[in-house]
Specification:
By secondary structure, the chain is mostly helical. The protein folds into two domains: about 5-90, no CATH class; about 95-190, no CATH class. The protein has ten helices and two strands. It has a two-stranded antiparallel ribbon. The protein is elongated and about 85 Å long. The two termini are about 65 Å apart.
Length: about 250
């Protein structure tokens, strides 16, 4: 794979330029979006849309295409132009591949809203195609691939009854933020409770003809008494009161 092409737009009232290089679905989406912003800013509509921006594609491949199809631009609808660009630059199965990429996404400990925007951003590449996922499908797709702990929190919070996709996103974002704060507080508590025992001082056994009555002496500093909130934190995380380790698999006295 060579160098990826770039889209340059110096100002909203200036048409974009698509330079030489490799073009994929993400880059085409960026090109279409910036062109549409320019067309809207200049109040250009109808059949004038395509020819107003198409000549900004400066790669040799596009120059050859424009040379062959230039007379058709006057009669080419914007959506038809986009279809032509997809056919010219993308593999025939790009819609299926993009959709499968979306369905493979999982939250994987990312901040929820970052994960959701990644999924929606990928779906935007399919806008105008039969593979584009509507809000209902997006809702189910994102929900099915959330982190299990966050999903349980949302279920306990009654979000399963929320039908509006936007409202659901906002509510989950707040719950995720609250869970993140709890995690940070727990991490701080773990650091606080992970007190190392004092170094052991041992007196070596030296034989002088008679056995020593106390061959070993050990000086340790006792851990401070647990507060009520610390006890509750340990109890709720399958922890040991003696060694003060979370998820220890045993419970001390």
């Amino acid at each position: 794979m060579g160098i990826k092409a770039t889209v340059v737009q110096s100002a909203l009232n200036r048409p974009s330029i698509l330079g030489e290089g490799d073009i994929d679905a993400t880059l085409l989406w960026e090109w279409f979006t910036k062109c549409e912003n320019y067309l809207q800013h200049k109040d250009i509509s109808g059949l004038a849309m395509t020819k107003s921006v198409a000549y900004g594609m400066s790669s040799m491949r596009m120059i050859h295409w424009l040379t062959a199809n230039g007379p058709l631009l006057d009669m080419m609808e914007w959506d038809d132009y986009k279809d032509q660009m997809h056919s010219l630059f993308l593999p025939s199965d790009w819609e299926h591949t993009t959709r499968m990429d979306i369905l493979r996404f999982h939250q994987n400990f990312k901040i929820f809203i970052d994960y959701a925007f990644k999924v929606m951003g990928k779906n935007n590449l399919l806008a105008g195609t039969d593979s584009f996922m509507n809000n209902e499908f997006m809702h189910e797709t994102i929900k099915a691939r959330m982190e299990s702990e966050l999903s349980r929190e949302c279920s306990h919070g009654g979000l399963g009854q929320v039908e509006s996709f936007k409202t659901w996103l906002d509510e989950v974002k707040h719950i995720n933020k609250h869970c993140q704060q709890q995690f940070e507080e727990m991490s701080a508590a773990i650091a606080k409770l992970a007190i190392k025992p004092a170094a052991t001082t041992r007196t070596p056994f030296i034989h002088h003809g008679t056995p020593m009555t106390n061959p070993h002496t050990m000086n340790t500093t006792p851990m401070p008494k647990l507060t009520e909130s610390e006890c509750q934190l340990l109890s709720s995380n399958s922890s040991c009161y003696k060694c003060r380790k979370f998820w220890a698999g045993h419970i001390g006295p």
